[in-house]
Amino acid sequence: MAQDHDDARRDEIAAAITEGRTSLGIELGSTRIKACLIGPDHAPVATGSHAWENQYVDGVWTYSLDAVWAGLQESIATLLSDVEQRYGVRPTTFGALGVSAMMHGYLPFDADGELLVPFRTWRNTSTGRAAAELTDKLGFNIPLRWSIAHLYQAILDHEPHVPQIDFTTTLAGYVHWKLTGRKVLGVGDASGMFPIDPATRGYDATMLAQVDEIVATRRPGLNVEALLPEVLPAGADAGRLTEEGAALLDPTGALQAGIPLCPPEGDAGTGMVATNSVAPRTGNVSAGTSIFAMVVLEKPLARVHHELDVVTTPAGDLVAMVHCNNGASELNAWAGLFGEFATALGASAAADDVFGALFRAALEGDADGGGLLAYNYLSGEPITGLDAGRPLVVRTPDSRLTLANFMRTQLYSAFGTLSLGMHVLQGEGVAIDAMFAHGGMFRTAGVAQRLLAAAIDAPVAVGETAAEGGAWGIAVLAAYLDAAAEQDLPTYLTERVFAGAAVDTVTPEPADVAGYEQFLDRYRAGLAVERAATEAL
């Protein structure tokens, strides 16, 4: 019976592929380009990928445009081969297609479509003066990585390419432009180029006028809005794959032109889609090398906060982002050390077993971590005003040093900077119904999830979302093209994509919340110790 069911499912998917009832999502991440094909039920049916790395060239973190297309072509080729191997058919078309990529950065082109300087990614931090001036003048936090900060810094530095700029965009916007001929951008990705007006869901007109005034003192006649891509919400018509675009994705010529594309989006937006966190009062926490939280707002923030970036969902709703440079890396280091200790005792264990044992021990610790203090700062942390980091474990003589307290403190530390940013949101009166958590540290059931709930004093959900992440998220946005006229994006995701999805939600325990607040008081006070360590070591 099971074999019959599998065969029927395979035949059903093969028919959907042949008839073009699938959606393809492509995401260009920082270390991997991934393609994900989904069926009519939004479940992934095939994937393809290509590993790549940024290059540090002449003081700039960059990727070459040749590397962009080589990576895209390999991702598509491996996806098409995966489809053929699994289902015995090779697709020549898809029902819809979408492109997502790392947000922010700087890609300026001249009137002939030639890139004027190498792509400057989000990782570059050479925009300090521009970001500070714009933040001050606009009364809106402009982070270092935003595209407008890069553009204004180029103007401040009198870079020779500035007079030639005809158009500037993001990586997703560039790829979409080459595939369709359309210079457009999804509102979520656009919100990392320039501030968005929540009423119009386009660039903020008042701020555009202010920036033009600022720029005019150094570059008279330059119209910033004319350089930016058109803004589109999720579900809008963003063009179709041209013959030239099809050849760029698939040089074999098998892929046909005419496929409709959804607006290109940023990786933050596709992460929100992949976790069903696009409605007001919802949010998600992503914990990896870095850790960040995104909360969909009901109204604009009352004040400017350097701890918070304000971007939008792919539908244009305002989102506050707390982005922390340091996440789970220090936890990984300690787990590696304990794994070595186990091996030295002749009891070697797999990494997952080590993590599981250590994480479960954390639940037995004192609610405040036993008076211990730790910092996971391998690098600087803008939220706490540190340009560099030194991982630390600090304790007072009367603290209670046990394995349980040590591991509870390490987990608390991983959430420390994040919770400071979340406290700023709470001070603004921002309400959160649930936060969806994803990332490797949540694989041990119920541990990091419970302690994160204490750290942000809000329910935390963990569920079985698509493992393909952002590539799956942009594929879902492509599929949404057919439903946008009937349903808004939050309703579509809840009723048609995530209906019936298994989700485990943990509410914060009062004792944990109180204990975490005691830890956070020590954490704030101990920042002076962390700062002294960066100066002395």
UniProtKB/TrEMBL annotation:
Any GO BP annotation: D-xylose metabolic process
GO molecular function, one term: kinase activity
Family designation: Belongs to the FGGY kinase family.
Name of the protein in question: ATPase
Top-level taxon of the source organism: Bacteria
Annotated keywords: Carbohydrate metabolism, Kinase, Transferase, Xylose metabolism
Keyword hit for Protein transport: no
Database matches in InterPro entries: ATPase_NBD, FGGY_C, FGGY_Carb_Kinase, FGGY_N
Domain Carbohydrate kinase FGGY N-terminal stretches: 24-249
Taxonomic classification: Bacteria, Bacillati, Actinomycetota, Actinomycetes, Micrococcales
Domain Carbohydrate kinase FGGY C-terminal: 284-480
rRNA-binding found in the keyword field: no
Pfam families with a match to the protein in the record: FGGY_C (PF02782), FGGY_N (PF00370)
